Amino acid sequence: MEPVNDEDVRTLEKVAVEVAREAAELALAVRDRVVGAGSVADLPTKSSATDVVTEGDRECEALVRERLADLRPADAVLGEEGGADDGDPRPGQVRWIVDPIDGTVNYAHGLPWFAVSIGAEVDGRPLAGAVVEPVSGRVWSAAAGHGAWLDGRVLRASELRRPGVAVVATGLNYDPQRRRRQAALVARIASEVGDIRRQGCASLDLCSVAAGWVDGYYEHGLHHWDWAAGALIAEEAGAVVRRPDPADAAGLGPEAIVAAGPGIADGLAELLRAAGASGL
Ligand code: LIP
């Protein structure tokens, strides 16, 4: 496979934005069919009673896969609903990491905070990403080494240097046992930071870090598709991003993702370690 160059990453970003925009339109169109068609409790579930899946998830991923097959036929795709099309990508092969609707519980309940998230990687290295919000129409994107943008405006992460007044976002897993341990961690750090936000959409939590809307974000137990695009957007906006690390070199938990403005990144990591994050 040809090495990926600068022109390529900008092209990949444009493809991610184009396809995510189309899927965002479909997600909105389908939502009226999904929301109000009956109780959320009647929706099919996956890993637990709260891990719901909707027609929107399935139809949007099918559209994304169809459009990527048209635009980028040589690439691989890993998606939340359809998994990996042909197993692991070949060395040097671009792979798209797709969450057709991130924030599915918000989507199914009629809350507006959900997004289509599409990232592109090669050999595990992030190259480009787009996160598109169907309700607001906001378009978040990044190309590796070129920066991150919200609707074309350059993004910069928080410059705050005091964790004690930081607004920190987090999320809770679908597994009730893990959720209980995660809630206990939130309780331990809540009085050590400025405030906590639980918005229900990892990709938009990471974009919020990129915009400085929150000063930091952490979560344990996400899937690759939840954070692939948002982590690059936060990183290209100047945030310090620690992606999940099976070796857990940072002592934050092997399945932790942490993103924060550079002024509080070390302080937040220390708070999380002291509160027992490595065991989550
Ligand atoms: C969700 C994440 C959220 C997390 C939820 C779930 P989904 O992704 O965006 O941050 O707390 O447990 O993983 O399932 O809506 O794609």
Percent of residues in helices: 25-40%
Counted by DSSP, the helix tally is 7
CATH homologous superfamily label of the largest domain: Fructose-1,6-Bisphosphatase, subunit A, domain 1
Taking the sheet with the most strands, its summary is: 8 strands, mixed
The termini sit apart by: 38 Å
Q: What is the CATH first-level class name of the largest domain?
A: Alpha Beta
Spatial strand order of the main sheet = 2-1-3-4-5-6-7-8
What's the number of extended β-strand segments? 13
Beta-strand portion reads 15-25%
Given helix and strand content, the structural type is alpha+beta
Bound molecules: L-MYO-inositol-1-phosphate
Number of domains: 2
Low-confidence stretches: none
Offer a concise description of the structure.
This protein is α+β, with helices and mostly antiparallel strands and 280 residues long. Helices cover 35% and strands 22% of the residues.
